[in-house]
Give the backbone structure.
Amino acid sequence: MNGSLIKVVARGERGQALPLFALFLLIFLGFVAMSIDVGRYVWARTQMQAAVDAAALAAAQSMPSQTDAAAKATEYWMDNSGFIRSQGTNVQFAVTYPEGNKAVRVEARADIPTWFARLFGVDHWQVSASGDAESQVLDIVVVFDISGSMCFDSFRQTETSGAYMMSPGRLTPAGGFNFPRLAANINATQTTIQLNDVRIFTSTNASTNRSNFGTTFNSTTPYWQRSASGLRAGMIMIDNELMRITGVNVSTNTLTVQRGQRNDATGVMTTATSHAANAEVWANRTGYSSTSDYCQLASYYTPTTTQNGPAQPFDAAIDAAKYFTTLFDPTYDKIGAVRYSTTAAISQNLTSNFSAVRGSFDAILWPAGATNIPHGLAVGRQVLDGPGKRANAVRVLVLVTDGIANTYCGSATYSAANYNSTSCSTGSGVSTAENHARQEAQRAANGDIIIFTIGLGDDLNRQFLRDIAAIGGGQFYEAPTTAQLDEAFEAVAEQTHIALVR
């Protein structure tokens, strides 16, 4: 009797458990089904927002052309919305142009069909996203290094003193002397060589010597006999071979030379080799003592705005700075220019007349002087705070240099007052100059100025330029060669052009 009762109770419990199990299984499957559909919704929403943001940023770069902006937005939407377009229905995509700084708004929506949620009466999810971007209104100043080292790629140092560089001098007669060239081929063993004109090396007129070779040669001692600290007398260079003049015969236009001389700047001996007629005969030239005229004396031409140089990397840097202005829109943006060497000066206040900005670069005829980066930063800040300043503009300072900060304003102790004008009494020293520059960069950053730095060539303190950019909230770009300058300027333009503003 008792055993029969127990069996009846057990069968009853099993009968109650089965419906409960089925109920919980149904609920569990419902959660699983919902999680799959919810996951599809979340993925669709994430992809849609990313696609919309990419489209908005791309479109903003094409403004103010709304046609180009719409085409670019559509291109980026198609590239980034594959899941939406393959899985969704009623997909909508639109580009509009709200009021603002070259603003673009991209909006999208779609219905994403559900798989399991429809069992509960939900047959689709609706997803939508929008993104606003604007190509920002910019006030930009290019702060441009015009120190004497900006012609050193064209002319090389061969003496222990960095005040002297080998160069050709004027193509047209300077001091009445013809541009010196070989008059005939020479072989590797000749020690008597004929030129078209040797008088430039024998002049005893101080002003003529100064006009041909620079301030250090302001002497009646002729070039071929003139020596100074770090300078050997009578050094010339033909192609890559250094020679030393030991005698001059004006009547026959010949030089007696010692061949294959040492480059004292590098410590490397040059090799005596043959040279062809008409090869240029280079000489040491300088100008650092007072007038800083080395680069203009070294070049082939008397400098003008239409004929100059060669003076590399100066020439290429000027061209790159002019190209930089073409990356912006004068309808919205303004650009100014500052040049700096021993001190800084305003070349052009903020203007939307980009032709005037390019003209201000062309007006810099040759590089000369030391490298006062802190004053360059200070005068750049003055331009951004000066005529043409706009309250709604993003303020950008682009510092370009090929060297190391070595000059500053005032004393070794930094004083902001020394950087409030375009004139200053200068001191020299790398560590002090860099300290002043960091403080001037901070002063600019405190005024909401973003600083980008571009370092040209190899003679750079890269960490210092990174520091200046970091203080200013920008970036440091390196251009080891002049061929990479355009890329550096393009990178700055891309960084400053656009922003998501949602």
